[in-house]
Amino acid sequence: MTKAFICGVSALALTEDERAFLRAHQPWGLILFKRNVQSVAQIASLTQEFRNIVGRADAPVLVDQEGGRVQRLGPPVWPKYAPAACFNALPVSTERKAELVRMSAQLMGQDLRACGINVDCLPVLDVPAPGGHDVIGDRAYAADPERVALLGGAAAQGLLQAGVLPVIKHVPGHGRAGADSHLELPRVEASLADLERVDFVPFQKLAHLPMAMTAHVVYAAIDPAGPATTSRKVVQEIIRSAIGFEGLLMSDDLSMKALSGSFTERTKALFAAGVDMALHCNGDLAEAVSVAEACPQLDGRAAERADKALSRLAETCPPLDPVDARAQLDSALAMAG
Questions:
Q1: CATH of the domain at 257
Q2: Are 168 and 125 in contact (CB under 8 A)?
Q3: Are the C-beta atoms of 225 and 217 separated by less than 8 Å?
Q4: Which helix H or strand E contains 212, and what residues bound it?
Q5: CA distance 90 to 237
Q6: DSSP state, 328?
C-alpha cells in the first residue's frame, strides 16, 4: 500500500538498494534534482522504472522547474527560462504579462511531460518584503499580493494545460523570512493583521489549486514555538481555515536545516500537525528509510486529496508551438533588457 511520502534518489539511474527501498516502502512520489537529469531518454527511463516498481502509471514525479535560479532541467538539453520577476518588469499590459507567464509555464510543462515528469513545484506565491532573504528574491512574481496571485495563477494554468500539476509554495508565505530555511530556521515577527493583508492573499486566491508546499518558517503571531510545517495551529487555523486550502498539503524538504530533531521526529511532527505528505529530497537512503518508516499509509482524507490532485492531470490542452511561443517570449523579455 502507498505511503504518504515523496523521496529523492541519488543519481541518473536507480541503484539496487534504491529499487529495494521503493519496493518495500511504496512512496507516493519521486522528486528529481540536477543530479538525476541528463537527457530526455534518461529521465524517461528513470521515471518509468519508478512507476513500474510502485505499480502506478500516474505516480507523481516532481521537480522544481521555476526558471531563473531554480531550474533543474536546463541548457544545453533544455532551454533557459526567465525568473518570475522578469515578467512583472515588462513594459506591457498586465493581461499580456499574465499571458507570457502562462506561455512560459506551458512550455516548461511540455518539456517536463516529455520526460515523464508530471508535477512542477511552481508557482512561488511568496510576497517579498523589505529585509526578506534573497532565497526568494526574483523567484517572486511581484511585491504586490494581487499581482502575485494573478501571475502565479497564470503559471498554474500553463502547467495544467501541459498536463503537469502545479504546487503552490511556500504556504502561508516565505517572503518576509530574513533567513534561508535551507540553512536555518527563519522567524517572522509580523502581526497577524499584516500577514492576512499581504502574505496570505495569493494563497487564498489560488486555494482551489491541487497541491501546496509548506514553509519551514516560524510565524510568531500565530505559533511562536515551531515552523508552519510542524505547527498544528498554522496548518489547521491558517492554511486550512483562514486561507481555505483544501488540496493536498506537502511539506518542504525534511532535510533542510530549518528543522530540528531526528528524521523520525520531523516526520511524525508534520503528520501530527495535519500535513498530508512528507517530502525528503537529498537521496540519502538512510535518512529516507527513517522518513519512510515514520510515515503513515496514504489513506482517508489525505488519499482523497491525492486522488483529486491526480485527476487534474487530464486537463491537458493542445500543445503550444515551441518555436513560435519561445520567439514571443524572447521578444517580450528583450524589452526588459
A1: 3.20.20.300
A2: yes
A3: no
A4: strand 211-214
A5: 37
A6: H
- Residue range of the domain that includes 30: 3-334
Q: Which three cell numbers stand for residue 270?
A: 508534520
Contacts of 286 (CB under 8 A, 6+ apart): none
Dist. CA 74–CA 329, nearest whole Å = 17
C-alpha cell at 5: 511520502
The grid coordinates listed for 203 are: 494563497
Could you give the CA distance from residue 178 to residue 282 in angstroms, rounded to a whole number?
24
Rounded-to-10 torsion of CA 137, 143, 145, 146? -120
pTM for the complete prediction?
Answer: 0.96
Question: DSSP 3-state assignment of 86?
Answer: helix
Q: How many CB atoms lie within 10 A of CB 52?
A: 12
Number of domains the chain is built from: 1
Do 196 and 244 touch, CB atoms closer than 8 A?
no
Say if residues 228 and 186 touch (Cβ distance below 8 Å).
Answer: no
Q: How many CB atoms lie within 10 A of CB 292?
A: 23
pLDDT for the residue 178: 83
**Which DSSP state fits 299?**
-
Alpha-carbon span 278 to 70, nearest angstrom? 21
| Side chain identity at residue 157, one-letter code | Q
181 pLDDT higher than 90? no
Q: Of 74-83, 226-235, 252-261, 297-306, give the lowest mean pLDDT range.
A: 252-261
Rounded CA gap, 35 and 324, in Å?
31
Q: What pLDDT digit, counting tens, does each position of 96-144 carry?
A: 999 999 999 999 999 999 999 999 999 999 999 988 888 999 999 999 9
d(CA 137, CA 126): 9
DSSP 254: T
Residues noted as catalytic: 182, 252
pLDDT(88) > 90:
yes
